[in-house]
Amino acid sequence: MTAPGYTRQAAVAITNAARAEHDFAGWLAAVLADVAGRLGSSEALTAGRPGAWEASLVDQLVKGTVGYGDEYLPSPGRRGGRATLTAAQVRLIRQRYTDGDTQRQIAARFGVSVSTVSAIVTGKTWTWLA
What we know:
The protein has about 130 residues and is mainly α. The chain is built from six helices and no strands. Helix 2 packs across helix 3, helix 2 (about 25-40) crosses helix 5 and helix 5 (about 105-110) crosses helix 6. The protein is globular. The protein starts with a helix and ends in a 9-residue tail after the last helix. Residues about 80-85 have low confidence and may be disordered.
């Protein structure tokens, strides 16, 4: 059986990301969370195989990344897979981190990398924002 064209395109894109991303696993988890957000729920990712071990692992990965409710999924419509943050979002990122959210959860929620969140919460970027 031949894989659909988008499967090959996805494999090429994922291979390129694996070569380029410092935190590939975090990136992949954020991508899956973004897709779930675009579809409206994490269950939409696994609807074709409910109960399968693969579906269970995808569900665990997404929910372990962003949280166990669909309200934590990233909002659709990000440009290029990455968000352009506003000052209000940066303040919210810092507050969520202070409140105990992990950097990975925050990154997936806002559609940015874990390294971006790290730079924000450690004060390496957005230093002017109190």
